[in-house]
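FAQ: What does a ligand-bound record look like?

Like this one, built around magnesium ion:
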Amino acid sequence: MNGTVGIIGARDRQIEELVRSAGMRPVVVQVEDLASPRGALSSSPDVVIVDVRADRQLLTQIAAIKRRHPSMGVAIVVPALEPELMLLAMRAGVTECLAEPLTQGAIESAIGRVMVQRTAPVEGRVFAIIGAKGGVGATTIAVNFAESIARSAGETLLIDLHVATGDAAVFLGVDPRFTIVDALENTQRLDENFFRGLVMHTPSGLDLLAASVRLLATQLDPQRVRTLVDFAVRYYRAIVIDVPRTDAAALDALDAASSIFVVVNHELPTLSNAYRLVARLRQKYGSDRISLLVNRSDKHSDISLSDIEKAVNARVKHIFPSDYKPALAAANHGQPLARSSEGRLAGSFHEFVRALTAPDKPTEDTRRMFGWLTPKRSHAD
Ligand SMILES: Nc1ncnc2c1ncn2[C@@H]1O[C@H](COP(=O)(O)OP(=O)(O)OP(=O)(O)O)[C@@H](O)[C@H]1O
Ligand SMILES: [Mg+2]
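The answer part, i.e. the structure of the complex:
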């Protein structure tokens, strides 16, 4: 086994030594390092062991740790497996309880089980979403995609790169104090504390670096965007960027993106824009990273999925159904659909994230959706 194990609350070095003997790296941390948004750690441990033998109060802090790091496995060390304590632990999100006497075998198997239960990381770390035409639903997808990753893998950041026109904060129902403008104007002094102060935490755990109402003093500089993304990648498992299609500098700054998704619909003007946009992106980033997301899919459209692929010369990665009322209500209430599992549009966002997590297994939803438009193919990839 390898990885880092955070240890909280231990009064001696026994756990540290057992962890080291298990081949993992122990780091002694304070609760605040993990529970508070201003925690001092540069990267979070894979697993955390909380020793509550001397201080039971530590149990009450575990929920806060899980809120900030939903995918991090938490094991606790207790004097004995009392039912009341176990119940409290379970409610707090603890995955494993270790009782005395602590042995090498017990620690190793507990850490092993916690590691296995960690959510599989998503396909890549940085995802760029670009609408091929205004109003095609790029922000809806960026927000809900990020929300869904945050739900399943934790530690996700959404960056709204529409510097002075973005509306991701509205979709998320937050009113940011600091914005992308503060980040881009201060790339030379980016450090973790400064950066964490700029991002907005949303109720689900998704972080947002929001657009501003203020214009940048100068034009958007691709190098500054690159610096910002490269910096942010160190602190998040996934970063989703809502990219303005009309800003050349933004389109030129996507080097860190492992996937670039162009959002289209079944309309010819959108597809013609998409063709030009994809050609331009392909020149800079190659074909592999670029694919299409079809929003408001319409099974009665004259233009099928394979027509879309041919017209744009790119493959379709996923399709999202049209569901006007819930989409509008979600935007108006600042409550992204993907915050819940209800409804076919919300389901489709989660399905998309699942498909990215296990790309070799076409999901039922993907199969069914691709099935009705391109009957001969089980998957558009
Ligand atoms: N799958 C969908 N079904 C129904 N309505 C949708 C869907 N996706 C988005 N919408 C609605 O379409 C409208 C435009 O969506 P959105 O703001 O996400 O588009 P956009 O591409 O980001 O626009 P802009 O070019 O202004 O940035 C919103 O009212 C949104 O609720
Ligand atoms: Mg938008």
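Follow-up question: can I read anything off the structure? Yes, for example: Residues 131, 134-140, 295-296, 320, 322-324, 327-328, 331, 345 surround adenosine-5'-triphosphate (ligand 1) (CB under 6 Å).
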